[in-house]
Specification:
mainly alpha; elongated
Length: 49
């Protein structure tokens, strides 16, 4: 779940050669804004029973 070890980079490289960063943690294992968005979505989700 970190950009450092993501398989996406080698799977389908971008044509502009920019790195893909699809994970909630960056290469240094720090939480990115996506991490907060995922946490907020879980918090806002209706309980399942």
């Amino acid at each position: 779940m970190t950009d450092r070890y993501s398989w996406i980079e080698g799977f389908e490289p971008r044509k502009d050669k920019a790195r893909r960063r699809p994970c909630p943690y960056d290469a240094a294992f720090a939480a990115k804004p996506m991490h907060a968005a995922i946490a907020a979505a879980f918090t806002a989700a209706a309980p399942r029973g």
